[in-house]
Amino acid sequence: MPLTTLVRNRSRLPLLLAAGALLVSGATLNVPDAQAQATGCKATDLFVAPDGSDRSKGTAASPFKTIEGARDHIRDKGLNRPGRMRCDINVNLRAGDYPVSTTIDFDDRDSGADGHRVVYRSYDGAGKARVMGAAPVTGWEEYEDGIYRADVGTDKPFYTLFEDGKRATTARYPNRRSDDEWAPYMTSVLSEPEKEAVRQWLYSSPGDWDASWNLDQASAVVWSGGSWSWFTDTVPIRDWNAAKNQMTLKYWTRYALMNSRGGSRYFLQNSLDFLDQAGEYYMDFKKGQVYYKPRGDIDDVTVLRPTVKTLFNLAGPSPDRRVQNISLDGLSLQYTDFVDWYRYGWISDGDSGEPRKYPEYDRQIELPRNRFGAVTVTNSKDITLSRLRVSDTGFHAVYALFANDGLTVRDSLLENIGGDGIKVEGPYPGEGNTSNGHLLTNNYITHYGELVPGDASGIELQNTGHNTISHSHIKHSARYGVSLEVRPEVAPADNYARDNTFEYLRIDQAGLDSGDMGAFYTYGVSNVEPHTIDNHVRQVVIGDVIPDGSMPDSGTRGVHMDAGGCGFSFEDIEVGRTTDQSYQSYQCNDVKNANWEDGYDATKMEYDKIGVSADFPYPLPEGDTQ
């Protein structure tokens, strides 16, 4: 079946059932109740409703008002106490909106016990209970040229904005080409030969900047590294001199702003002088005022400011005291915030200041200030996130950090995500294998990396093993679709990225704005011979991987096995158009039936099983019919 005419048969439930229980989607609301009936116990039901009260009893007739109210009731009454919990506890959220002004925390006090779970679920159907980390902006006054201004205060600054469920663009120069693109850019230049290694001074070509601009609260978004297009930094401008074409950034970028005499692509943002298009906003942090040019009539739209960076934080106190046996089912999670500045990782080995066996790993993980998602999971066991609809996040949608075992994310729609879709980051290498056995299946992840296009992945795994990533559709990214990473310096005994399976995946529109990449990417996974084959990739379709024309880096690939990208089997893989090779790797992997090799047999592709299931609980975005 040719890739360009690939159309899948949506009626494939019998095939999926025949393939086993992996894709039981949980589309039936009362999955916990069915399990309870099988064990002969009756679940405890608590109810929450937008018009309820936390002084109520939590019954269907007298519901709580907040999730925290139900959580605290369970704690206070000891309903989940070991030895007392005889069946699951269902916290049923009725349809409606649940605004969140502070993160909802679960710890080991909130765990299920004795083989039972505490389930927070949307009672009236998937997506009907909407947990929202945003509040309306009101009190708009007309400013000029279709721009409106509102007072929002200086006590709680925010770094993204939404109009009627669509992200606004921070006013920028040059204006973006479309809502789906990050280009166009300006390009930094080399002022003096000895300035090539600088990471804080950005130089422009004469005429690129207007001396009348007010950049007092502006920042630069830059693909640092010159010809390398790997990471993006978002850095406030400390000061600038238009006459000298020089700008000083408040923080160092990850890489130098010039590389091999090549400049870095960048744009400037958050100046009132840049606010000239509908859907753009400018935030005056000093005065606590937001300026916005709405897409529609200001009286007919709802403009929302984020109130939290994380909606749910599930965190045990330590790896020895884990939060466990909690489920979030069928909830719609919408709106979270970004940060005031962003860089991926420390700049140099050991910059964290903490003694580590592999100090190089400091450069491979998020800075502590950026370790969050709309759902953040730490020190956990057997947490299940099912049938979620996560949208309009400032940063990652789901972030599992360090010590977590048995995380399940399934049957969920993740869209319009600021950072990664799902990020599972294991421990530092050589410090204990504490992240294993995760199941990420039947998920549709689209338009991610909206605020952090550099290094964005639909699913990113770091130093974690024994995981299954399957039956998912991943779409629209400046960089990766799926990535598995450790570091090339890590010895085999300290490298935990073992026995991972990637299967029945469809990746479309990856590599839209970066280079030297693959839609499927690995780095530092097997660094020493012999390279035992213990990671497996099968039944994967990768669409075209074509970057923006401004991208100066080396080409795009379907599969890129970077340094240490060894010890993998590939079987039944199909790749569309790329600007470089379909597959780039050292001779350390096993490939069978891939369309970049002679003798490829398309009849072995199980197209009807690739991507999400026919009974996926949400309408597919953009009219996609799989």
From TrEMBL:
Residue ranges annotated for the Right handed beta helix domain, each copy included: 374-516
Signal peptide positions on this chain: 1-36
GH141-like insertion domain boundaries: 252-295
The keyword ATP-binding appears for this protein: no
Keywords: Signal
Pfam family for this entry, one: GH141_M
Protein name: Right-handed parallel beta-helix repeat-containing protein
Species this chain originates from: Streptomyces glycanivorans
